[in-house]
Amino acid sequence: MTEDILRIRGGKPLCGEITVQGAKNSALPLMAAALLCDGETVLHRVPQLSDVYAASRILNRLGCRCRAEGNTVTIRYSGSGSYEIPDADMRAMRSSIMFLGPILGRMRRCTLSMPGGCELGPRPIDLHLAAMRQMGVKIREEEGRIVCTAEKLRGTGIRLKLPSVGVTENVIMAAVCAEGETVLINAAREPEIVDLARFLNQCGAKITGAGESTVVISGGSPLTGTEYAVMPDRIAAVTYLCAGAAAGGSVSLHGAVPAHIESCTQVLEAAGCSITEQGGVLTLKRTDRLKAVPYIETMPYPEFPTDAQALISAVLCTAKGRSIIEETIFDSRFRHVGALLEMGADIRVSGKKAEINGVPGLHGAAVAATDLRGGAAMAVAAFAAEGETDLRALHHLDRGYEHFAETFHSLGGDVRRCRFSAKERENQSLGA
Ligand code: UD1
After folding, report:
1. If you measure from the C-alpha of residue 306 to the centroid of ligand 1, how many angstroms do you get, rounded to a whole number?
2. pLDDT beneath 50: ranges in the chain
3. pLDDT tens by residue, 345-395
4. Residue nearest (by alpha carbon) to ligand 1 atom 32
5. What is the 3-state secondary structure (H, E, C) of 1-44?
6. How far apart are the C-alpha atoms of 256 and 262, rounded to whole Å?
7. pLDDT the model gives residue 143
8. Domains 2-21+232-429 and 24-228 fall in the same CATH topology
9. Where are the domains of the chain?
10. Distance from CA of residue 80 to its chain's centroid?
11. pLDDT digits (tens, 9 = 90+) for 191-216
């Protein structure tokens, strides 16, 4: 058994230019939506990530031919295949729930299991199922599996209890195949929803209002595959900006969409970073010590995203003064804090609030990623920290970051991905 670790030697500024990868959270629903299209769908700028590979496996099982060549993925539905998502796939990628709408749209039946408890706390799917029920889907439980069937899908009015990203996507994907009009109220407004609607409209769908709270979908138009480039990843963009803020230096991003990350750049500016945009390049500079940001609350887009919460926590560890971060979206999203404490941070978590008292500096430590963004936050802290950090459990990072170590290399970061056998790791921890 071997294990990869990232060995980061921090404490020096990051300086350089990088191009932002395609968005994981857009590529996955776009791949799922390709199931609804006749003919071939060609997606460009698809990041090479384990979640994308999991989505390809699911598509192949559902009867698609899904091929990847670099960052281009080609998908063609063959006309027949399974309508089931096996337990293993539901576990491998918890967001496989986003296949529910497209499978029902295409096949009128779908069997899947609960995504299960996860690193961010319980991830219920009640709102997904309630919305599908409203569209005429019958749902029952059989031997622990959820069996969904529909004679036909019908357009209807759906009001979401909370603006869930995944539910909004599932409703849109089912509604394009439904009879009549669906009016979705209190929809999520994330840019990934706009990307999905834009893609589907290019395939022949009739969707208006994506990016606003009310989305109207006129169902029943035939959908034909198209060629489309996935939007840039706003959370990956924020990750590299946060690393520049924490370690100091100058980080320039090509391809980021400044409007998508405004709530984050505003916080980084409030902490003392300078952020400018010129000719499509977004540059963050940080020279002096950062200052605390009194209060940050995670909220649905366009407010501060939950996915950037751990990253900004890592930045604020060394900011002068006291910062409070309140997590309002997920129940259990402070699991990265333990590692930051190991690195010398002063953070107190109480319920949904974290109080960060800025320390003058962090030091390297041996830590393990707890989840995707939590792991990235540990890397951000490691670049700011004096000495060496060994970051383990990289499978979390591989779900969302393409060429993570190489990207930091281009920013001048001292980082290596090393492979150790179990024996070597044991010797290391014994100091041999
Ligand atoms: C998506 C993103 C994820 C991000 C999250 C919030 C993808 C692949 N993932 O996840 O990175 O952190 O949005 O911006 O795009 N909820 C229910 N019942 C449901 C569904 C959701 O109670 O049936 C709750 C969740 O527990 C959570 C809240 O709604 O508290 C928001 O979750 P949601 O917007 O659905 O997140 P995802 O779509 O899973």
Report:
1. 10
2. 431-432
3. 999 999 999 999 999 999 999 999 999 999 999 999 999 999 999 999 999
4. 164
5. CEEEEEEEEECCCEEEEEECCECHHHHHHHHHHHHHCECEEEEE
6. 11
7. 86
8. yes
9. 2-21+232-429, 24-228
10. 30
11. 999 999 999 999 999 999 999 999 99
Indicate which residue's Cα is closest to atom 35 of ligand 1: 164
53 Cβ contact partners less than 8 Å away, ≥ 6 residues apart: none
- Taking the domain 24-228, which CATH number applies? 3.65.10.10
**pLDDT score of 429:** 58
Measured from the Cα of 129, ligand 1's closest atom is 23
CATH superfamily of 2-21+232-429: Enolpyruvate transferase domain (3.65.10.10)
* Distance of CA 164 from the midpoint of ligand 1 (Å): 5
- Closest atom of ligand 1 to 125 CA is 23
Q: How far is the CA of 366 from the centre of ligand 1 (A)?
A: 31
Task: Tell which atom from ligand 1 comes closest to the C-alpha of 97.
Answer: 39
Please name which of 360, 374, 361, 354 lies closest in space to residue 311, comparing C-alpha atoms: 374
Ligand 1 site: residues with CB under 6 angstroms? 25, 28, 95, 123-128, 162, 164-167, 188, 192, 305-307, 329-330
CB 48 within 8 A of CB 402: yes
Q: Which of 58, 329, 371 to mutate to test the pocket of ligand 1 (most atoms within 8 A of CB)?
A: 329
**Which backbone phi and psi does 424 adopt, to 5 degrees?**
-60, -40
**pLDDT value, residue 235:** 98
pLDDT recorded at residue 90: 85
pLDDT of residue 387: 97
Residue nearest to atom 16 of ligand 1 (CA): 124
Active site positions, annotated: 118
